[in-house]
């Protein structure tokens, strides 16, 4: 008995999310998807999980219909991801305060009582 390759199923599910979200999705594509999904409950679970993630990331609808099926091209078109500046500053301040606290503790410990 062999176990299913979860990574392969996840990759297939991701491919289906992209293919079904693209402007080129056809009735034939949707029929092939339905057949793939019926082959295993794991297929449906993986697809539902990744579809939910896709929908969450695309809450404003900006990604809808833009997927081409070529993941590298889609990522290149999307451009680099950047962290919101406010969040970056918060971590920088927290790290600076922590470093200052450690430095003071070391200096205090070296001087002794």
From TrEMBL:
Keywords in alphabetical order: Membrane, Transmembrane, Transmembrane helix
Origin superkingdom: Bacteria
Domain annotation FecR N-terminal: ranges: 12-51
Transmembrane segments: 90-108
Pfam short name (any one): DUF4880
Protein name as it appears in the record: DUF4880 domain-containing protein
